[in-house]
Every structure is written in C-alpha cells, then in structure tokens.
Write a structure and sequence with these properties.
heterodimer, A: 326 residues, Rossmann fold, Alpha-Beta Plaits, 4-stranded antiparallel beta sheet, 13 strands, B: 347 residues, alpha/beta, D-Maltodextrin-Binding Protein, domain 2, 4-stranded mixed beta sheet, 14 helices
C-alpha cells in the first residue's frame, strides 16, 4: 500500500512531501570533538524547505564535520539533528532514500562508465529519476559511455552531482562542490545548482569561496573554529559591516588611523600586510577626503583601489583574517 | 522480457555484482593471475617433474680398475681422476662421489646430506664389492611402478588448486575493498541507501562465479594434459572448492576490514598468506615440518584446504572422512567473518 503510494510519485520531479511544513534541517546544540580539536562547537541552525543554504568558512572551520553529521556519516558528541522531520537514530533508512549526498573527493572506479555508475546508484533508491534524466541534468550526454578515468575534473564533479540526484532527493548536500575546478567548470556547476534551485529543491552546500556563496545561496552561515559567527542573506551580512564599499591603499609611511576614521562615511579601518583597508558607506565624498588627509601628511600612495564589499570582507571584518589565509 | 530486464536492472545486489565483474574483467593483469598463471605453473611443474628414466649418477675414481667396476652399474657413470681434481669435481657438483683407492681398501668421499650422493654411495659400494667377487645372500627382483595418481604432478595439482583458491579470494576482496575505502567510495556508498550486506555479498557472488570458471579451466587442463585422477565425487569436490573459497574470502574481508592504504593492505595480506605458502604443503607434504609446529601447520586454512582436495582427488575420500579439515575450514569461515563485520571500517 505504502509502496504503491511511493511508486506513484516516481514520475513527479519532486515528491509532494516537500510541501510539508517545518524546516528541512534543524540543528540544536551540535558539538563534535576529535582528539586534538573541537571541530563543531555548539551549532544551532534551521534551514527552510526550498532554501539554498551555504556554510562558508576557511578550511578547518568545521564545515565538513557539520555537513557529515547532517548526512548521518558522523555521530555528534551531543546535540540534535533533524532532517525532514526525521532523525538518524530512528529514521535512517527512510532518510537515506530522501536525501542526496555529494562528498568531498569521492573517486568513482576509473574503469566504470558514467552510465554504469549512475545505474548502480539508481538501483539503491526505491524511487527517483531515470539514469538518462540524471545524465541530461548533469550535462554528461556526450560522456555517457566514457570511462570515468577519462573525464575532466569538472565532469567528474558533475557525475558526483548526478549520483546525488538519481534518487530525486528532497534535500541535497553538496560538500565543496567546486573545489579544485577551473573557473569555467565552476561556472558550469553553478548553472547546474541554479537549475536545481529553480526546481525548488532544498540545497545545503559548503564552500570556502565567497563569490560562490554570494552567487548561489539564499542564506549563508559563516563558520570559524567550529562556531557560526554570522548568519543571514549575503546582502544582510554585507550590510552588517557598515559600509558597502571597501577602499584599499598602500602608502610610503605611517598614518594615524584616527585621522582616517574621523572622515565621515568611513566605518572602520584595519591594516593587513601593509595594506590599509577602509569600510566606506559614501564613496564619492569619502575618497577626496582620504586623498586630502594623505597629502596633508605628505605620504605617497603606491596603491589605491575600491570595490563593493563582499562576504570576504565580512569574514575579514569579523575575524581579522582572510578566508584564504589558512 | 523487458519487465524481467528492468527488475534485474533495478536490483542493487545485481548491479553491485555486475559492477564487480566489469571491474575485474577490465583489469587484464587480474585475468592473467587468475586464469593463465595457474596453468603456466602447472605446465612448468609438469615438465620439471615429468616421469623420466632414473638419473644416471656421475661419480669419479682414482684408479682405472675402480672406474671399470663402477661403470658396470647402469646407474653410474664413472671417470678416472686423481684425488686433487676429484676433490674439485666434488666441490663443483660435477660428480657426486669420489672412490679413492688406498692399497687394498677403498674410501668413498661424498656429502651424506645429499640424497643423490647417498644413492651413489650405495650403488658404488655394491658395484665395487660385486666386481671383487661378493655374492648376494638373498635373490631379489625389481617391479617398477609408474602409476598415475602417485606422481609428483598428481600431488601438486590439488596443492596448486588450493593456492589458487586462496590468492584471488584474499587479493580480490582485499584490494577492491581497500581501494574503495582509500578513494572514499565506501563512504559515498554508505551515504546512499545501499544495503551494506549487499556490498559484501556482491564480492562473494562474483567470486563464486569466477571460481567456477577458474576451477573448471585449471582442473580440466590438469586432467587433459597430465591425466590427473579424480577419485572422489565431483560434486563433493565442487562443494569443497566453494567452502574453501568462502573461507578465504572471509579471511580477505578480515585483512581488508580496517586498512586505509593499499600499502598497509598489501603488507597485511602477505603477512597472512606467506606462512601458508611455506607451511601448508602446496609443493611438498606439510608433514615434513617438525612435530612441534605441526598443530600450527594443521590449523592453517590452506593446509586444511589442500588436505581436503588431496583427500578427495587422490584418495577418493568422502566428506565424512574429511570432517576434521572441513571443520577447520568452517571455523576459518565463521570467525573471521564475524570479526570483520564487527570491526569493518566503512570510511
């Protein structure tokens, strides 16, 4: 009875259960320590259905541990994990059927072909899309009969994505989907995620690329040292640092920071490796005054540039470190 | 038809097993080691140990008189040499024995740890004493045996079969599992709804299918080329092959249950198999080892495997008569399997 019910949904692109109320993912007081490090240090999180949510942070921030706890691959020391209203202790078998997972650095057998691999993964799911459909979604039509050993990095990553999609999951986990890919392959994968978002799937992804999080995610949690240090839409997070523009310059000598922060429209100042960084809200009035202040001090400018604030600047503002430093 | 196909197509156990097959068949080296190597080995051993007329032994003597006496025996070829060059010939293995004339008596110089040299000593003494006029007290005649089933090739084929059941089971399972672990494929599979038992079952199923091909090819060759006898029931022989293969698969699973790198797995597998290659009586009888290590030798799965195979093929024993080695094999099946299920590392 239940079986026929599930099977009747098989042709629909997304199961109707998606419309149920309640968050797709709920984390409360999540904690996980390894021998030498606390990987996850008290995380609370809610992800709504249909949302594309990003865990952003430097390597070692605890993103992968967090996502693997969500995927039921790692047991947390304490805290609760709820996915689609189920938990791993009592609902593991059902959850495995309803989520899709793409892990970091999975290597599928080199001597299998794309379609063979997808047929294998499709066989694990009671319901889902056809192998052909998954190949089409991942745009691997030309490679369907190629061995995996001959695929490019981007194609392998799209295959991993297709393996995560064959079960037509309600909730999709992508762990660093574009790490190690060239810019073109990254954009290709972003387009693929865009398509999945449009289909209304809930997606949770980790990344250490700011531009990726900004481009793809409805909401972002910035993680550092196992904690969430900021949470919101990319726009909210960028607005939270005060100025929507960043001014960076290098000068020949020293300048008293107070002279700079006294200029109206300058929200903050920091120096990183000789480069002064100012967070600025009104670029057109602030920049002439910065030049004036530097000239008054008889300092020579060797570098000067401005850009719109990004999540990178949010991370720098919160931690004083660059995301890519670690 | 299409219904049948699609239900096969969506069975995860079938897909997993087919995947194992494909990956095996796309590995040319694996095919060589599994199918070709055992036959090459059997041919080589068959040639080396083929039945030929008993060897003629090379000996030396210090006088023409002795040389003549020695040459009167069909089993000996003697030549005359002085004591110094005879010593050199002994050292280089050109002769096995030097007969030295000392007045009326004779001195034999030879290495008594070399069985051929001991034979030469017996033949030489007999020839010299006879030529000096000794007569046999009892009249004796020889009846020579070259019967099939008692030759070296008959002895070694069940040994090779046992070895060939061990290697692919342990290597095949071990390397494939550790490689999948190292490449994080295991972790990806457990993140999917794949039933874990099916993953292990797919290895066993594919092994059993390949096993039937290997065994038929190897034994068929041994029967046609060497006339190796099959004195026991063929069904019981098939049962024994399956049991042996399952036991070694369990052992392979155990060696692969935690190793994270191919190097570690390779070391472990060699550690497991090396004592058996040496001690389990593939090429010579395991009873030759000292009594003190016999209990250990007997308890090894390959010893038990070869005992059952020789018992069946050469002595025509039935399963009841082979109950002890079968019990040992069953223990090697159940215990490592239970342990590996407990300690298996999926990621």
């Amino acid at each position: 009875m239940a079986d026929t019910l599930i099977r009747s949904n098989a042709t629909a692109p997304l199961a109707s259960v998606t419309q149920n109320a309640g968050p797709s993912l709920l984390l409360r007081g999540l904690r996980k320590a390894y021998v030498d490090v606390v990987a996850v240090d008290g995380i609370d999180l809610e992800v709504a259905r249909g949302e594309c949510f990003g865990l952003l942070g430097p390597n070692g921030a605890g993103k992968t541990t967090t996502i693997e706890i969500c995927e039921g691959l790692t047991e947390p020391d304490s805290g609760t994990v709820e996915l689609l209203g189920l938990n791993w202790r009592t609902g593991a078998a059902e959850l495995r059927q309803r989520i899709g997972v793409q892990l970091q650095e999975t290597q599928f057998p080199d001597k299998s072909t794309v379609s063979e691999t997808l047929r294998l993964f499709r066989s694990f799911f009671h319901r889902g899309i056809s192998v052909d459909e998954s190949i089409k979604t991942a745009q691997l039509e030309e490679k369907r009969n190629s061995r995996i050993g001959g695929l490019s990095g981007g194609q392998k990553q799209r295959l991993a994505m297709a393996c995560a999609l064959v079960g037509d999951p309600e909730l999709l986990f992508l762990d660093e989907p574009t790490t190690g890919l060239d810019p073109q392959a990254r954009r290709h994968l972003w387009d693929l995620v865009d398509e999945l978002k449009k289909a209304g799937r809930t997606i949770i992804l980790t990344t250490h690329y700011m531009d990726e999080a900004e481009r793809l995610c409805d909401r972002v949690a910035i993680m550092d040292h196992g904690k969430i240090i900021a949470l919101g839409t990319p726009q909210q997070l960028i607005a939270s640092i005060g100025g929507e523009h960043i001014v960076e310059f290098a000068i020949s000598g020293e300048i008293d920071p107070a002279l700079l922060t006294a200029i109206p429209g300058i929200q903050s100042h920091r120096v990183d490796a000789g480069l002064h960084q100012l967070s600025v809200s009104h670029l057109h009035t602030a920049v002439p005054q910065i030049f004036a202040a530097l000239t008054a001090q008889e300092l020579h400018l060797s570098e000067f540039r401005t850009h719109s604030a990004t999540l990178e600047d949010v991370f720098v503002g919160l931690t004083g470190r660059n995301l890519r430093d670690e | 038809m299409s219904n049948l196909e699609s239900s096969y197509d969506t069975s995860s156990l079938f897909q997993l097993t087919v995947t194992r097959f494909r990956l095996f068949l796309r590995e040319p080296e694996a095919i060589f080691w599994t199918f070709v190597f055992p036959i090459i080995l059997a041919v080589g051993l068959g040639l080396a140990f083929r039945n030929r007329p008993a060897d003629v032994l090379q000996v030396g003597a210090t006088s023409a008189h002795l040389t003549q006496a020695l040459n009167s025996d069909k089993g000996l070829t003697a030549s005359t040499m002085d004591e110094a060059s005879g010593g050199k010939a002994l050292d280089t293995g050109a002769i096995l024995l030097l007969a030295i004339q000392k007045g009326d008596s004779v001195v034999y110089r030879y290495d008594d740890t070399n069985p051929d040299a001991r034979t030469a000593r017996l033949l030489a003494d007999h020839a010299i004493q006879s030529s000096a006029g000794r007569h046999e007290a009892v009249r004796a005649e020889n009846l020579l045996v070259h019967e099939k089933g008692s030759r070296y090739i008959d002895f070694v084929v069940p040994g090779l079969l046992g070895m060939n059941l061990m290697g692919p089971a342990i290597w095949g399972l071990g390397f494939a599992i550790v490689e999948a672990r190292q490449k994080k494929l295991l972790k990806r599979l457990v993140a999917s709804p794949m039933p874990k038992w099916q993953f292990l079952a797919s290895f066993i199923l594919s092994r059993l299918v390949m096993l039937s091909v290997e065994v038929v090819v190897f034994l068929g060759f041994a029967a046609l080329a060497f006339g190796v006898p099959f004195r026991g029931s063929l069904w019981q022989l098939a049962f024994l092959c399956v049991l042996i293969s399952l036991s070694f698969s369990a052992l392979g699973l155990l060696t692969a249950s935690r190793a994270k790198t191919m190097e570690a797995a390779n070391g472990l597998m060699n550690l497991v198999m090396l004592p058996m290659w040496i001690l389990s009586g593939v090429f010579f009888s395991a009873t030759r080892f000292p009594a003190i290590i016999q209990p250990f030798v007997r308890a090894l799965p390959l010893t038990a495997a070869i005992d059952t195979l020789r018992g069946n093929m050469l002595q025509g024993m039935n399963l009841g008569q082979l109950i002890t080695p079968i019990a040992i094999l069953l223990a090697w099946l159940v215990i490592p399997f239970a342990i590996s299920l407990k300690i298996f590392r999926w990621r």
